[in-house]
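hey can u check if this looks right to u? its 99 residues, i copy pasted from the old doc so theres a chance i mangled smth
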Amino acid sequence: MPFVNVKLVEGVFSTEEKHEMAKALTDVMVRFEGSEAFREVVWVLIEELHPDGWHIGGRPFAGPKSLMESLERSKSIVESIDGRPTTRAEFTKAAPVRI
């Protein structure tokens, strides 16, 4: 039986949204399993975790503000890379670790 485990930051989604999410994930699993018969055995567990336990990019989660900060940081990193690396070695050379 398929088991889908989703971990979310507590309080981000409403109860109705979580139910919709579980239904949508079930639909995806049924589609990949290939038979409607699987619907009744798809398990979806949505776990909500306290915001203090979440970190993004090594920094504490701060809600939507974290998303904007991550996008801004990503943009500046992308803009600092020379060329278009495609391998890990190329990325290591083009965007070395900053200490």
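The chain has three helices and four strands.
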